[in-house]
Design brief:
Alpha-Beta Plaits; 2 domains; Translation Initiation Factor IF3; about 40% strand; about 30% helix; four-stranded antiparallel β-sheet; 3 helices; six-stranded antiparallel β-sheet
Amino acid sequence: MPTEFTVRGSHSAFQPPERGTAQVTLSFQGPALQPVYDRVVADLEAVKVSVHELHDPANGPVTWWATQHVRTWAQRPWNKDGKQLPLVHHASVGVQVKFRDFARLATWVGRLVSSAEGFRLDGVTWALTEARRIELERAVRTHAVQDAARRAQEYADALGLGQVRPVAVADAGMLSQGIAPMGGGGPAGYMRAAAKDAGGGAELDLSPEDIEVSAEVDARFVVD
């Protein structure tokens, strides 16, 4: 009767990010709607001009960008004594700008922090290019399967058995009754970056961590 081994193999790879997408909000508030709206629209136009100067889909430093619609709303705040204050109008718009040159990203943010009062950097999403991500995912899956085969053979050798042969390979968790994948391989990289005042100018602290691409597989082997 054959001896069966069910093992899990895994592998991870780390790669410095190749793209950084700045998540930006332009916002303003005041007692009247029109001046608030006009101020945000003016700031947005200034941001668009700065991005157009850098935009080149093939070579960068900006490879892609997008803006949302300007959003407006109003609210009546309350003071500490429970009294409702006059109406305050708000306007804001979100902008996303993807850079391949992180030094230019820092310079761009620093310049806008200094020139646009309503500019706020909400964070930077770090990522790989799609081609590099697919390449790494293929590599880590291959290594994960090889890791599973090595584990199974080590168990067989410990028992004094012969060469194992595979009978099933699946994403982690799918060889069990639940048929529910666990873990998996894919890019993961998000890091918040804040603009800080550096005594006379705005400086962006850019310290992106390497992006981890990982894979886990379950495999079943037998020795006849």
